[in-house]
């Protein structure tokens, strides 16, 4: 996927999934110059586009203007996302979301590999993989016969090999085959909000230790447009002193976006880290906030 500047010849609106390379450049610029509160003209100059094109691109991609997107990424707003996050988790637990998570309108069910299967490093496990377009760049989707086992992101074609190696080393003894036909239906359902359905939930296979799976299951209870801290997660799983270990488990989440590790912030409201890059974490948060505003959430 090659980046290029927008020109006056770009009359049509780019598809949401094709817009991410430019969105990534815009987010990087807006983040770097956030304290200067860059206006639409400055952003357009950076992207070699017209202000109207920039406004349209952002509105089409996530439902927010560039100005609203910057505001959504401010420290104060991040703090507001964290308000009452512990009670959000408790409420989710009370309505039965601890066993079968609902990720905003993307409904999922899940199962965990047995400890023995995890210990064997994926020995005997067959995993299909394929790269597909998404609103956040190229998405590597990995699936077994039982469901989606992995989801990762790459910024461009050159990163494919590194991203694939990063994911496959998690289960070194598994058997892998490239099969876009097998993974495409999963990618289409995950990244197309019109196909999010309680009647046909996305099935996940969580491959990790008992502790990691417990953390990932708790992440599934965090609704779109909200955030939790590492301390909140640690308290929810009954290990309030294990915030650092929880952070490590969050970082090893193998199913990005669906298991929303991007909704975990530091206790002071700062973004913290993200395995697939802070720019993408900002994009994920902004995209979801746009969806919430559109839906009146």
- Average pLDDT works out at 84
Number of helices: 13
Helix content bin: 40-55%
Largest sheet: 4 strands, mixed
Low-pLDDT runs of 5+ residues are: 1-14, 93-104
Structural class call reads: alpha/beta
Query: For the largest beta sheet, what order do the strands appear in spatially?
Result: 5-4-3-6
Note the overall shape. globular
Rg calc: 19 Å
- Amount of beta strand: 5-15%
Distance between the termini: 33 Å
- Strand tally: 9
Topology pattern, helix = H, strand = E: HHHHHHEEHEEEHEHEHEHHEH
Question: What this model shows, in words?
Answer:
It is a single chain. The protein is built from 13 helices and 9 strands. Mean pLDDT is 84; it is low at 1-14 and 93-104. 43% of the residues lie in helices and 15% in strands. With 297 residues, it is α/β, with parallel strands linked by helices. 38% of the residues are buried.
Produce the secondary structure layout.
Elements: H1 20-32, H2 40-47, H3 51-62, H4 66-72, H5 75-82, H6 85-94, E1 102-103, E2 106-112, H7 115-119, E3 126-132, E4 138-144, E5 147-154, H8 160-168, E6 175-178, H9 180-191, E7 202-206, H10 210-219, E8 228-229, H11 230-236, H12 243-251, E9 264-265, H13 278-295
Helix pairs in contact: 1-13, 2-3, 6-11, 11-12
């Amino acid at each position: 996927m090659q980046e290029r500047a927008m020109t006056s010849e770009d009359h049509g609106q780019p598809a949401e999934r094709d817009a991410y390379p430019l969105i990534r450049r815009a987010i990087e610029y807006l983040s770097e110059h956030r304290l200067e509160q860059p206006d639409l003209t400055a952003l357009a100059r950076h992207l070699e586009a017209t202000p109207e094109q920039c406004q349209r691109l952002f509105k089409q991609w996530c439902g927010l203007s560039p100005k609203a997107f910057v505001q959504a990424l401010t420290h104060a707003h991040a703090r507001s996302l964290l308000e009452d996050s512990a009670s959000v988790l408790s409420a989710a637990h009370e309505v039965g979301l601890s066993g079968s998570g609902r990720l905003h309108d993307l409904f999922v069910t899940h199962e965990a590999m047995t400890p023995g299967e995890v210990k064997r490093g994926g020995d005997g496990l067959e995993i299909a993989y394929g790269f597909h377009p998404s609103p956040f760049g190229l998405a590597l989707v990995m699936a077994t016969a039982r469901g989606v086992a992995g989801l990762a992101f790459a910024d461009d074609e050159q990163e494919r090999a590194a991203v694939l190696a990063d994911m496959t080393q998690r289960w070194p003894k598994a058997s892998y085959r490239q099969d876009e036909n097998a993974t495409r239906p999963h990618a289409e359902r995950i990244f197309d909000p019109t196909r999010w359905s309680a009647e046909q939930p996305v099935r996940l296979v969580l491959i990790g230790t008992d502790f990691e799976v417990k953390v990932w299951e708790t992440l599934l209870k965090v609704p779109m447009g909200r955030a939790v801290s590492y301390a909140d997660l640690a308290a929810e799983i009954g290990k309030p002193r294990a915030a650092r270990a929880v952070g490590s488990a969050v970082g090893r989440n193998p199913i990005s976006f669906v298991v929303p590790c991007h909704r975990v912030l530091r206790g002071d409201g700062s973004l913290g880290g993200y395995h697939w890059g802070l720019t993408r974490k900002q994009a994920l948060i902004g995209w979801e906030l746009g969806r919430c505003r559109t839906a009146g959430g």
